[in-house]
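Handout, section 3.2

Students often ask what a structure token actually looks like in practice. Rather than define it abstractly, here is a full record for Sialyltransferase-like protein 1. The first block is the sequence as you would receive it.
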Amino acid sequence: MRGLRKASSRTPTLLHLLCAAAIFSLFVFAIQSYFFAGNNRISSKINRLDVQILSHFQSTIQQCVANRGLGLSAHIIDHCNLILKFPEGTNSTWYNAQFKIFEPLEYKYDVCEAILLWEQYRNMTTVLTREYLDARPDGWLDYAPKRIAQLGTDKCYNRTLCEENLNVLLPAKPPFHPRQFRTCAVVGNSGDLLKTEFGKEIDSHDAVIRDNEAPVNEKYAKYVGLKRDFRLVVRGAARNMIPILKGSDDEVLIIKSVTHRDFNAMIKRIPNPVYLFQGIVLRRGAKGTGMKSIELALSMCDIVDIYGFTVDPGYTEWTRYFSTPRKGHNPLQGRAYYQLLECLGVIRIHSPMRAERKQDWSDVPSRETISRAHSAAVRLKKSQAAQESDNLGQFRNCKVWGHSGPYGTGPTSGSSDMSDLRRNSNYSKWETMPFNKLRKEAQDHFNQMEGVSLYKIDGNKLDDLVCVKHSSKSEE
């Protein structure tokens, strides 16, 4: 009996403990639920604020297009998407044989993606470098061969094979840096350049970027200027550079896509620095040279002015300013996209129809407005991807990290069999420039980026970057 009483006395105690445990569990669950709901409320509030910021930004773009679009109008779909429409009666003469349609009169754009793309370009390195190939896991084996035509192999099992073709145009580290120049003029080849005398205005820029075989001489000086700093060239045009350059050894040549042995032989005969553009779209073909020139300029310049890009209505001839006119098409999609870029603060458009207008740029969103919209787009994309944290901040897209020596160190481009003319080229002007010789804005940007250079891996998507950290040794 005594044993039974002891067992029965323990039963209530056990029940009390179980009840207490259940109550405690419910209490903990309630607390967790409260904080989880609170976090959701905070997240929802942040997203609502970001949507408001981006919606306001869409309104500023809409007004900008109305003021500057020469008939274009922007129609807002939501906080990220809008449609640019041409007015009724616009002459769409270009016929797409593949899809059996004429060029449409409206184009949809994701402004959130566009601002993320182009604002990131401001921090990018757009020249292929040795540090990029060293940092990228497949850099020398798989990537380098894609940049060399006529190599005879799709992989560099023998790294020396690729180095022999690339050394002559491969700097150790970026020769050009974000914000290195204050103003840059990107001069296209359109025949509409002959309608307005922009020459002196173009030459007033800190740097001028030209395309392919565009001549620079007294004949066209009042239209396109005489200043020559950079020239982005496709492989075919590169072979004709000696007569185009005419002894101007200050002009830097940047090959748009691939190099090859014959071209390397020509490089050794000219004194100009020659580099390879890093941002090729592998396996899908590169974008137009004009757009790539803007990408190059944005990676080096605070302000990018474009000329000769055929952005005016009623253009019925497709020609270069140095060739005879021929019938062509109205590049409506190009016009729409360039106008969007202007209203995103990426470029400033100069053309015959705009030459008579007051170009005060007050109807383009300010840098502060663009910066707020960019930050909101980053947060919105992060929340949509369900990312819980973003400890890397400005390096959130760095998927591959590499390390390199301090700024201005390492060998300059070249090879052992260069001619004396080539040995005395201006490579060293850029590749060994002391850090303290950069303009203050470029130094400040370098420090803000913590000495990290950003490179695209492939294509134009910026979700995956190769990031190279330079050593913290004092740069002098």
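Discussion prompt for tutorial groups: Confidence is low (pLDDT under 50) at residues 1-10, 31-42, 282-286. How would you have guessed this from the sequence alone?
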